[in-house]
């Protein structure tokens, strides 16, 4: 079974440009999450999709970030326009649909390292 | 919101020794505490987890303890091996599925 994949693995852009990150979750996983780790700090939650719907987007920093999951399969995270503080590693994770008590495992992708210069 | 603190930020141990990483959380409603291992170039991978109704859980050389009263939980790795070298994250889940991570501990096992 293929794991969570992310593209690109690394992106270097200039301040003011636009970047789109892509995440392909494990097949059949309804839940998809985006996280971000800024250098040396904790991994921070950005948002959570259940299928194509945004369940929780409380972690999105501002309106320069737009996440989509059309069709409930892969997801994209667009940053427009990018700022220096957006640099970091963006992780995507997916999990199966909740059952019972709701305990589940989130499977993480390898991340996209974004550098804004 | 939930806040998770993790210590130490770096840890070096000799091969064969034990390693302990400690975390505290703030939200008394948190009920699930996973630990992740992140190797270079990879995403975090779940290595062990503990639920709030359990005080201790062990899986081979890895054990986790939870003190709900004090809001502390710890990861213990015994008989460390070079392949244990990685960044370890503690985390907690308070609200609906939202996971809050600690800042990470870089563990180096010296052969």
Descriptive report:
The complex is a heterodimer of chains A (117) and B (111). With 117 residues, chain A is mostly beta strands. Chain A has strands at residues 5-7, 10-13, 19-24, 31-37, 43-50, 53-56, 65-68, 75-79, 88-95, 107-108, 112-116. In chain A, strands 2, 4, 5, 6, 9, 10 and 11 form a 7-stranded mixed sheet that branches. A 4-stranded antiparallel sheet of chain A has the order 1-3-8-7, with no helix packed on it. Chain B is mostly beta strands. In chain B, a hairpin with a 4-residue loop joins β7 (62-67) and β8 (72-77). Chain B contains no helices and 11 strands. The radius of gyration of chain B is 13 Å and the shape is globular. The model of chain B has no long low-confidence stretch (mean pLDDT 93). In chain B, the strands form 2 sheets. In chain B, strands 2, 4, 5, 9, 10 and 11 form a 6-stranded mixed sheet that branches. Chain B has a 5-stranded antiparallel sheet with strand order 1-3-8-7-6, with no helix packed on it.
Secondary-structure blueprint:
The complex is a heterodimer of chains A (117) and B (111).
Chain A: E1 5-7, E2 10-13, E3 19-24, E4 31-37, E5 43-50, E6 53-56, E7 65-68, E8 75-79, E9 88-95, E10 107-108, E11 112-116
Chain B: E1 4-7, E2 10-14, E3 19-25, E4 32-38, E5 45-51, E6 56-59, E7 62-67, E8 72-77, E9 86-93, E10 99-101, E11 105-110
Parallel strand pairs in B: 2-11
Antiparallel strand pairs in B: 1-3, 3-8, 4-5, 4-9, 6-7, 7-8, 9-10, 9-11
**Low-pLDDT regions of chain B:** none
| Poorly predicted sequence stretches spanning 5 or more consecutive residues of chain A | none
The proportion of residues forming helix of chain A, as a percent range, comes to: under 10%
Instruction: Characterize the biggest β-sheet of chain B.
Output: 6 strands, mixed
Tell me, briefly, the overall form of chain A: globular
Q: State the distance separating the first and last CA atoms of chain B.
A: 41 Å
Count of DSSP helices of chain B? 0
Distance between the termini of chain A: 37 Å
Rg of chain A, rounded, reads: 14 Å
- Please identify the oligomeric state: heterodimer
Largest interface: A-B, 27 and 24 residues
Overall pLDDT metric of chain B: 93
Give the number of DSSP strands of chain B.
11
Instruction: Please trace the helix and strand order of chain A, writing H or E for each element.
Output: EEEEEEEEEEE
């Amino acid at each position: 079974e293929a794991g969570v994949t992310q593209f690109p693995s690394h992106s270097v852009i200039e301040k003011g440009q636009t970047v789109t990150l892509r995440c392909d979750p494990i097949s059949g996983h309804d839940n998809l999450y985006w996280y971000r780790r800024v250098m040396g700090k904790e991994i921070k939650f950005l948002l959570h999709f259940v299928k194509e719907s945004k369940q929780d987007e409380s972690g999105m920093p501002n309106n320069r970030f737009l996440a989509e999951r059309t069709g409930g399969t892969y997801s994209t995270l667009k940053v427009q326009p990018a700022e220096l503080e957006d640099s970091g590693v963006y992780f995507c994770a997916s999990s199966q649909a909740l059952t019972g008590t709701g305990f589940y495992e989130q499977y993480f992708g390898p991340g996209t390292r974004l550098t804004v210069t | 919101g939930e806040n998770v603190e993790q210590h130490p930020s770096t840890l070096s141990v000799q091969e064969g020794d034990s390693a302990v990483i400690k975390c505290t959380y703030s939200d008394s409603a948190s009920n699930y505490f996973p630990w992740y291992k992140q190797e270079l170039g990879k995403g975090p991978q779940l290595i062990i987890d503990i639920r709030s109704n359990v005080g201790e859980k062990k899986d081979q050389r890895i054990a986790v303890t939870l003190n709900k009263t004090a809001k502390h939980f710890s990861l213990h790795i015994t008989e460390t091996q070079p392949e244990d070298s990685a960044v370890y994250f503690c985390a907690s889940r308070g609200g609906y599925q939202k996971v809050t991570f600690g800042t990470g501990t870089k563990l180096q096992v010296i052969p």
